[in-house]
Amino acid sequence: MKRMFRGWTWEATLAVLILLCAAWATSLSPFYLDPDQILYSLQQALAVAGLLAGGLMMIVIAGEIDISLPATLAMGTIVFARMAEAGLPLWLALPTVILLGVCAGLVNGLLVVGFGLPSLAVTLGTMSAYRALALWFGGQEGHADFPASYIWLGSATLFGALPLSLLLLAAIFALLALVLHGTVFGRLLYMIGANPVAMRFSGIRVGAVKVAAFAAAGGITGLAALVYVGQFESARADNAGEILLFVVAAVTLGGIDVFGGRGHVAGVFLALLLLGTIKNGMGLANLPGPVQTLILGALLVGSVAIPQLARLRLRPRRGAANPDAAGVPRPAVPPHGAREEKT
Amino acid sequence: MSATAAPRSDRLVFAMLQGRVFGVAAFLVLLCLGFGTASRNFLTVSNANTIALNGAILVVVACAEAIVVITRNYDLSVGSVVALSSYVGLDVVRRYPEAGPILILAPVLIGTACGAFNGFLVAVCRLPSVIATLGTMSIFRGLAFLYAGGHQIDPKDLPPWVAATVGGHVLGLSALVLLGFAIAVLAALGLRYLSVGREIYAIGSNPDAAPFYGLRSERISFRAYLICGTLTGLAGFLFGGRVSYVVPYLAQGLELTALAAVVLGGISVLGGSGSVFGAALGALTIATIENGLILLGASEFVRQFIYGAIIVLAVITDAVVQQRVRVLLKARRQRVRAA
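Above: the input entities. Below: the structure tokens describing the complete assembly.
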């Protein structure tokens, strides 16, 4: 019983924080506690960013990072716009864009795995390359003409209030939870993130699993592009430039270890709800945009720095016979600057 | 060196590693010739001057970024540090005009403080540098906005020594260009001959082995961030002195340009190799590309695409060369052992 609780302390903390934030938002404005308002603002904040966070989560668990996802998203929205202009039906456009996202992820993954490169450097490069492709496909001006079928997923509501895109987000997270916690692929992702060298010696094709994670994240991003199009009815090459911080903050705040190998899907989902509530509250408090970004950045840094500092303080007391909460024995402190293991 | 002569391909790769700076220089010359034939206005004295002036600040930022990249870390916050140090620093300068040029220390110290914070997160808390500096990028930018509160600094309100420093001439050469050149040379010499510099390379080239030589990796990476912040703060001062209005959204996206310059100049993204001089040349090359594309009337997306392509290509080249070097070093060790 105690053991079961120990694994969920972070998630419980997040749940308490969500309630605290909701209370704070209620004290700011009497209009906060309106289900329509809450659902609408959550949809605005989370529908797209949440999907990206779901994709990024897989990559971070495997011990890598992908900062090109927002650029892939922008590319996807542009392709939707072009296809809408050409009069293509949605059932043709959606698979195309998802495939495009998968290809973008494959390129990232193959570059990272094939050349043994740090994923930041690779995705930093592909980030601007994908943005440039988006500009090339779509030109400098925005596109706003979408048929009803394209915007249905991102804008429709069930029972008059419940946004469909939030349901989609919940469904995708349920699927991710199933994949990450219940399939061989998911367990491999965790174990590769925890100790890639041991996995290689165990005969696991580490590279293939990592590439699959990148590709899956790209595919989810393609789906997110459709939600984006429906939500904002706009497609421009510089769309979603600011979303990366929110996405990374959600992943780290959700308790996914930035060095890979640890964290629950439920934690990321709760972190998304928390960030959505905070954003809603900051909006009600009339905080200007840059200050909101400042707070997000501080949350990101705090969410990674504080557990890490605690871990470093605990290091001397931590023996080999005392494996951590996830049950996977691993060095308490990853070697400084370790990014790619030496072969 | 071992007594046995290295095979030819062996020497070629080592020559490639050592000659990378010349490679960048050759690329720059080719680029100039290309732009020169494409546009009549490119190969003129006034245009060269423009490139040098625009490039000088980028050279300072690229040197700063290079020092961090050599330690196997990244700094995504340089653009925000430039914005924060130039706005807050120049605001201090504006408020105390009687203090004189000593106040150039204000932006520099603000940059140092930012660098110290980054260094604390990366070296002391041992966070991945990407995630830490992605966070501080928005923190520093947000602080600049908070401090500015919607205002901007008009250069007319600044004491005259600011314009004299940034726009001045020494022996007929622009002070800004001289400063950029001096910083690149000093940083290159310092990294090559000072023990601090050698330690920075040692940490980057093999972080696992460095502690066995008695090197304290936290301290050294912290120092690298500190130097980076200081130089970026100085760049913030120069940047602020050159623009028509100092605003908190200055230098957005500078981190990408600086990283492109650094990897183009042959600093390995895997750390531990490359020279700051190469990074400075890379910065000049980027400034040349930017200038040439503007003269040719190319659109924004071409530029962005070129930066992205440069980063990806340089990163792949690094990986291939390093893999080859690793194989060759192993072969050499075996030859030495056999001899």
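Note for the figure: Residues 35-61 of chain A form the longest helix (27 residues).
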